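Reopening this one. Same input as before:
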Amino acid sequence: MPTQTKPKEVVLVASGDLRIAANQMCWPTQAAMEEQVTAAFAAEGVTVRRGHPYIPELKHGFIDSQKYGIEVFRRIDPDVPIVVAEAVWQYSSHVLPGLETHRGPILTLANWSGQWPGLVGMLNLNGSLAKAGVAYSTLWSVDFTDDFFTNGLREWLTTGKVCQDTSHVHDAALPSSPAAKLGARLGGELRRDKAIMGVFDEGCMGMFNAIIPDHLLNRTGVYKERLSQSTLYARMLTVSDEEAQAVRDWLDTAGMTFFTGPDPATDLTDEQILTQCKMYIAALRLADEFGCATIGIQYQQGLKDLVPASDLVEGLLNNVNRPPVTAEGTGRVLYEGQALPHFNEVDECAGLDALVTNRIWTEMGLEPETTLHDLRWGEHYAGLDASGAPLDDFVWLFEISGAVPANHLPEEYKSATSMRQPPMFFRLGGGTLRGVSKPGEIVWSRVFVENDALHMDIGRARAVALPEAETERRWKGTDYAWPIMQAVTYGVSRDQMMGRHKANHIQVAYAPTPDAANQALAAKVAMMQALGVQVNVCGTENGLVG
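Same output, byte for byte:
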């Protein structure tokens, strides 16, 4: 029988990683946050009881598997208020089965910190709950004593809900500009001619929100080719050392810097890089063989136990200027002069977005490189930016777990460096494609699933360049081996973004001027509407509602 709770009591659960090294490394931060959360509830006269214990032999107290999560929820009263507290990256699949049948109020919360991806984990869970049709509320705080958190907590304890400010969200009107007509035409062409999305296994890291059901995706004209990561590994074995070395030589000539060392357990080695080059070649050949317009590699789980990380591969694929790869036996250059949009962590929502972005930006003569970032963290900045201009705004730190297209960096590959992936996440290592994204106008977006329908939030922002010391401080407060973008969103505050965003990922693409970015946004809205996607414009552009 479920355990009965006392009055004025809530149950706290903590979803964690599947990788024990990550759970152990991050546990002290989680434990410290839970102390703060417990104190905040106590100040309201409410006791927090943990729904599962710290396990000494594991050296952490996370729910670390779907199996364990189901066992934990069997012992929890389904009507008790429940808090999912996250200071780390978490697998939503560990707690989603229990939360789907929970009847009491659900509150997800995270600490406002860039150290570990707690905010990212919480947003992934929020997106998964939204897709599953589970009602939830969400909060975040630096120390759980600020007015925003305290007022929200009181509201949740009193009503079972926290109402977020969504005044920045506007239903997208059907645009009628030339750019919008272009988008509508491209949408019609995609539905008529169709395209294939190559999926190297689904459900990366428990990301339920990242899987688009076939009946929704197919309506857009996009169909999945379900490929196996074992197929990718097998094709890698057919790539010669000479071919892999040619890719590495190309990157060296282009000016990319690799920080290598002798110990594969802690250093990036030349052998790891050559294996990644083989994956890059194999991915292009398989994509060509199956006619894919976009592909996504899962890596976690599966490939992580066989080969170094896939991230360097993903950054290269998303760039127009990249090492050439030929088809076996023919010498034909694959996807010549094109990026092959890759959706990191096989996030299919980002895959659809990347495909649409690639087609619009290419048609408009803009640089089509696009990528997803984690909505990692941010702080207000008041001072001069790197160019000496005044800046007084909240500056986000977007960070992808390994690679951006080199075109997003100030001097493309000359600005790109490669470091070994963190051992706690990536046992077999592998290099990244890292750097600080160049300043410029961007369009951001997110496709998500809610109420058995496809939606997209879209808005405008500006990538900014902060002084080197400030950039380093922020970067070193997160994952230093990963690339970052620092950005100011137009007309969307920190709390508005967090309260609305239903994903851990955010898609970004550059435009050369504000007007070009606005036109690209209009085209993207129209194309998504033509595909049957429900579109909301978030915030403002040049002082006008988008």
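So the earlier flakiness isn't reproducible anymore. For the record, Residues 156 and 256 are 50 Å apart (CA to CA).
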